[in-house]
Design a protein that fits this description.
By secondary structure, the protein is an all-alpha fold. The chain contains five helices and two strands.
Length: about 160
Amino acid sequence: MKKFLKKEVMTPLVVLLFLMVYLQQALTKQSAPFVDGVPQETFFPILIVIVGVIAALTLLIPALMKAAGSTEAEGERAPIQKKPIYIVIAMALFIFLFGKLGYTLVAPFYVFFLMTLYDDGSKSIVKRVIYSLIIVALIYVLYTFIFDINFPEIWR
């Protein structure tokens, strides 16, 4: 049983769990995914969940097959990776605060955190802040003006 509690198996399972919670939240607060053949706000969370589930299953199935055939010693343990834990916590916090504080306030911190987490120390903090603001602005323009989807904001 312990061979199935490895990070290769548990990480996709945790991602699948969060995707299901995300889907439930998206479907209870939104309208129909398509109206007159045009994608609405609900379509994009569903699309994210579909892609995420496919990616998680792509990781989970080989990990389960490897764990089922594994005969390695029980005392052998790999070090715990903390990045995935931080990412899941940041994503949950982002989803929770997104509806309360709005995209403009929450997204820059989320992007900055992910950039800091994945950065090898080559960029200065000022560059990360600038890049975070540019990325958030580009996503805002893409969704607001091209997809015609308004993000929740606290002043609306």
